[in-house]
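WARN retry 2 of 3 for item q-0093 after timeout on previous attempt; input resubmitted unchanged.
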Amino acid sequence: MNPSEPSRLTLLKEYLGDDPVQIKEMVDLFLATYPDDINTLEKYCTEKDYKNIQKTAHRLKSSVHLFNIEPSHDLILKIENLAKKSASCDEILNLTKRFKSMMDNELKIIKKESEQLS
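OK item q-0093 returned
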């Protein structure tokens, strides 16, 4: 992590009172559910299932916000809004792939920060 960047766990620490056990549990839950969520989001894009694209993007948006990942948050918000408008699923799928790529590095940062908690 770049020292000038805020910790990905700052908001979790604020919400959970800096309890390392609870923070690690939340991180582990996110890391465990994220792969299914992103794969499901891609599947809904190929099926043109706008309602479920929107619901899945909304769920991911909340998690991404909780982990202080602004560029990814902005992108998943855009995906959610495009689904609300029933925009081109090709565009949504392309943004989803971009989001997934951005998150690959972010997941490593989150995991590393979680492992450093005492």
